[in-house]
């Protein structure tokens, strides 16, 4: 009834205002046991479990009754049902003061819970006053009545201390009666009920009201509300005693601090409704669950004493969140819970306009049951574990499970449609299958590209190129930081002996090699993540993960007594940066057409590889100055040519933290997902049946594996062979040459063919490693270092060229192969399949090749340990390059090879079509 609604703005405002105030009073009564329950617990000597059952009982009643009250509101109107609900709850609350035993308290608490059922009444009543495009904001304002919980926490402790808990119950009951009277005389029946009476239309039967509840999506939709609302109610009840027991504050202070959770979790619900109207509920729900996962993880960490057995004795330190940190974190959690509550209820009146009462009642009931069940479980967990933070551990698991479930539901929905069909899907996956007309009420998120045709010249020129380049230029800094964190040990390890660490040469080579091992292993998994999770989300999460090793390094290197095992663990965590390359390349490959794919991947990888050079250039400078002041810790005094000098080795990790934060935020707000670039792991696993996947793994190990392995091992190898040379002055030049040659020679592969360029790259690499062997043999002669260094620069240059050309080969190979593998498919189907398999192969080959970052430094160490020099390892590398050269020629470049005709402009019709 949009016309009637738009013509009665005064009725809308009055209905919304009075409903919000009434719900605030009802919610204050519904959570009254959060305060008076503490005194009752002392009077009756209740256990933790008994207390949890007492405070949860009103929540149970208020939840279960919501479906019934919602149906009655649809049938008889919200005005009369709201007033009846408040009067019934007032009677039960007043009679509570006559209860003297625990069973009597439980019975009275059941009646008090009637106040919680008012939510279903208010949702149905308010929604009938507003058109669909304004219902999100209106229901968000109404839902802000949750602030009644904060009202109780602010005022009830004052009344309790002054007059006792009986007075609190009596005053709160009186407030319900007064509110019921005011509500009756200031509001009117909703327009739907008035129109039904005017036309003589009979209300729907109860069975018709319950019909939508058969839809399984509604039940899944309800379970999301279990966290955003149920956990809010549970914490509103649990926090006062948590604060009293954990932080030793009195009941008044506990109420005030708990209000820092309840207030934002209530008032900002109105803002959440506005955001849902403008941006769509899915985006709001993503932010809600992401922040909730982080917040509950922080809150769940119990106070802990650590004792590390150092060389000079035990090292003890204590980790615990203070009351200020707890208050700030709980405020943030409450804020995002408020947004989530509004986002969930944005959809009810839009998708079920004729069944708002029953559907809203069910959703509210499931959420309310969370408020009943969770306090009981909190008590049980406390009794079983003895950990007060166990309640947040449970909430962390629920939030993480909800986020995972929602995301995979979204991805599954998107995989089944693309283009215009995807644009018609609802903004929340649980509502798929609802009425098509209502879907337009929610705005589709701009982050998802539902129409992506990079091979279409018109589309590419008008729209595609700009979007693709934006994603590329956001991907490059994230990848650069990933390489920097991955290779930071190549600099740190060389400096560890200077600051007091006493490790053998073999132990130092292990530290330099382990990031390569973990990074390569992670790449195997990261290769398949972009089509599963989406490039935007996965790139953001993996960029955030770099903070863990960055901060860990910063703290660990400040103490020379830090155990070797801890440094080994941090070396493994640096592999997070190595793993990111596979997913980054896979993501960017989807954005560009075949003609520009080689250059785009070369830019992404080449400028990303600059992170290796950056870390070897910047870190030696950053560790010489106290750039973070007192926050960065004290320097170590080390010997130098001019005497002792301060060294802040911790800056090797701390320096990158602000850049990681900026890059992660840029990825989230600036990058896109491509709707058609969706595939499950099983769909991508077909690459394991492709022989060219394994051949390219071998060849790319020869190029990229050499680049990253030489980057990791060059500083330590040079320091070992030429101890009089300040290697860190030159070490960055090798990776710099390799990165620039990769980013600057991608056009060669696009123009002349990746296989031909790869062939000559291996020739140069063979020359380079031969030169290294020659100059190692005459290392005692003058200027031998410069010959050694020049040979390595040639090696780095050749690996960069080969890195770009091998990646250009992959889409060319799969484009050619699709004509043979899918002869009956359309050209578009072949193109999409070739892109998906190329992306997966690109990621997987980078994973296998990354093991070079482990085997080359470890090969040096093993060769030196067994033979006294690195010569044996270098001879093994030379033989490996010979096999790569032979394979490239035999399979791809010779006449009759797979890419011979393609690269010489004589592609077969099948290949051209593909």
Describe it for me?
The chain is 75% helix and 3% strand. With 914 residues, the chain is mostly helical. A two-stranded antiparallel sheet has the order 1-2. It is elongated, with a radius of gyration of 33 Å. Keywords: Cell inner membrane, Cell membrane, Membrane, Nitrate assimilation, Transmembrane, Transmembrane helix, Transport.
- Mean pLDDT comes to 78
CA(first)-CA(last) distance? 54 Å
Note the beta-strand portion: under 5%
Order of strands across the main sheet: 1-2
What is the CATH third-level topology name of the largest domain?
Answer: Growth Hormone, Chain: A
- List low-pLDDT spans: 1-7, 205-210, 417-423, 427-445, 906-914
CATH homologous superfamily annotation of the largest domain? MFS general substrate transporter like domains
C-alpha Rg, in Å? 33 Å
Q: Can you tell me the CATH architecture of the largest domain? A: Up-down Bundle
In helices, the fraction of residues equals: over 70%
Q: What structural class do helix, strand and pairing data support?
A: mainly alpha
| Main beta sheet strand tally, sense and closure | 2 strands, antiparallel
Question: Total strand count, please?
Answer: 6
């Amino acid at each position: 009834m949009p016309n009637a609604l738009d013509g009665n703005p005064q009725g809308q405002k009055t209905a919304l205002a009075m409903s919000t105030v009434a719900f605030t009073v009802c919610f204050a009564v519904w959570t009254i046991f959060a305060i008076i329950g503490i005194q009752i617990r002392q009077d009756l000597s209740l256990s933790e479990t008994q207390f949890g059952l007492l405070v949860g009982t009103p929540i149970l009643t208020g939840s279960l009754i919501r479906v019934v009250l919602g149906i009655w509101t649809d049938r008889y109107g919200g005005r009369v049902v709201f007033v009846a609900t408040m009067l019934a709850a007032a009677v039960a609350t007043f009679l509570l003061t006559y209860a003297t035993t625990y069973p009597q308290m439980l019975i009275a608490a059941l009646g008090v819970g009637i106040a919680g059922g008012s939510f279903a009444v208010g949702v149905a009543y308010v929604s009938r006053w507003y058109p669909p495009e304004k219902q999100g904001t209106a229901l968000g304002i109404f839902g802000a009545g949750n602030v009644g919980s904060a009202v109780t926490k602010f005022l009830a402790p004052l009344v309790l201390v002054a007059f006792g808990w009986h007075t609190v119950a009596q005053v709160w009951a009186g407030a319900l009666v007064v509110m019921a009277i005011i509500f009756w005389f200031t509001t009117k029946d909703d327009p739907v009920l008035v129109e039904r009476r005017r036309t003589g239309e009979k209300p729907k039967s109860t069975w018709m009201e319950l019909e939508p509840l058969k839809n399984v999506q509604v039940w899944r939709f309800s379970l999301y509300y279990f966290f955003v609302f149920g956990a809010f109610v549970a914490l509103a009840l649990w926090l006062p005693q948590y604060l009293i027991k954990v932080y030793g504050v009195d009941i008044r202070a506990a109420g005030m601090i708990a209000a820092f959770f309840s207030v934002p979790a209530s008032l900002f619900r109105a803002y959440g409704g506005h955001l849902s109207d403008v941006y769509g509920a899915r985006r709001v729900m993503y932010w809600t669950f992401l922040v909730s996962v982080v917040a509950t993880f922080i809150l769940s960490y119990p106070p802990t004493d650590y004792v590390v057995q150092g060389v000079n004795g035990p090292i003890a330190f204590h980790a615990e969140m203070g009351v200020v940190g707890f208050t700030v974190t709980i405020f943030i959690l409450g804020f995002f819970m408020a947004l989530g509550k509004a986002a969930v209820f944005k959809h009810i009146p839009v998708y079920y306009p004729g069944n708002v009462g029953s559907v809203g009642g069910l959703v509210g009931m499931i959420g309310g049951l969370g408020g009943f069940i969770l306090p009981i479980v909190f008590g049980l967990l406390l009794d079983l574990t003895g950990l007060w933070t166990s309640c947040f551990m449970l909430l962390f698991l629920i939030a993480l499970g909800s986020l995972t479930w929602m995301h995979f539901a979204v991805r599954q929905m998107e995989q089944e449609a693309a283009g215009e069909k995807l644009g018609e899907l609802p903004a929340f996956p649980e509502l798929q299958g609802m009425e098509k007309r209502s879907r337009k009420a929610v705005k589709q998120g701009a982050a998802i590209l539902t129409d992506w045709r990079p091979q279409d010249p018109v589309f590419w020129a008008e729209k595609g190129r700009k979007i693709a380049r934006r994603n590329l230029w956001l991907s490059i800094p994230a990848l650069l930081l990933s390489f920097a964190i991955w290779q930071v040990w190549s600099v740190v390890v060389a400096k560890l002996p200077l600051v007091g660490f006493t490790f053998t040469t073999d132990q130092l080579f292990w530290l330099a090699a382990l990031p390569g091992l973990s990074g390569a292993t992670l790449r195997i998994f990261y290769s398949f993540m972009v089509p599963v999770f989406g490039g935007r989300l996965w790139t953001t999460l993996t960029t955030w993960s770099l903070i863990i090793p960055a901060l860990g390094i910063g703290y660990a290197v400040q103490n020379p007594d830090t155990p070797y095992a801890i440094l080994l663990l941090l070396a493994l965590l640096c592999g997070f940066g190595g793993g990111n390359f596979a997913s980054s390349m896979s993501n960017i490959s989807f954005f560009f057409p075949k003609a520009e794919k080689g250059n785009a991947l070369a830019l992404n990888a080449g400028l990303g590889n600059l992170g290796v050079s950056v870390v070897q250039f910047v870190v030696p400078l950053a560790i010489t100055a106290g750039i973070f002041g007192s926050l960065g810790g004290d320097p170590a005094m080390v010997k130098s040519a001019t005497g002792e000098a301060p060294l802040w080795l911790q800056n090797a990790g701390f320096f990158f933290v602000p850049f990681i934060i900026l890059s992660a935020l840029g990825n989230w707000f600036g990058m896109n997902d491509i709707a058609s670039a969706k595939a499950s792991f099983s769909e991508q696993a077909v690459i394991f049946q492709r022989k060219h996947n394994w051949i390219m793994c071998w060849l790319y190990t020869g190029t990229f594996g050499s680049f990253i392995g030489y980057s990791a091992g060059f500083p330590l190898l040079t320091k070992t062979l030429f101890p009089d040379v300040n290697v860190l002055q030159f070490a960055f030049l090798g990776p710099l040459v390799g990165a620039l040659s990769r980013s600057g020679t991608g056009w060669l592969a696009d123009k002349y063919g990746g296989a031909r360029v790869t062939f000559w790259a291996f020739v140069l690499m063979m020359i380079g490693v031969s030169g290294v062997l020659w100059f190692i043999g005459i290392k005692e002669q003058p200027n031998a270092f410069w010959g050694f260094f020049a040979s390595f620069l040639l090696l780095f240059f050749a690996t960069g060229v080969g890195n770009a050309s091998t990646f250009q080969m992959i889409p060319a190979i799969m484009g050619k192969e699709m004509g043979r593998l899918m002869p009956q498919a359309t050209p578009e189907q072949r193109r999409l399949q070739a892109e998906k398999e190329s992306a997966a192969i690109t990621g997987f080959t980078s994973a296998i090749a990354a093991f070079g970052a482990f085997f080359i430094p470890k090969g040096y160490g093993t060769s030196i340990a067994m033979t006294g020099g690195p010569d044996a390892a270098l001879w093994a590398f030379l033989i490996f390059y010979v096999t790569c050269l032979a394979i490239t020629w035999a399979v791809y470049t010779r006449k009759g090879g797979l890419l011979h005709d393609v690269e010489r402009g004589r592609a077969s019709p099948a290949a051209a079509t593909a």
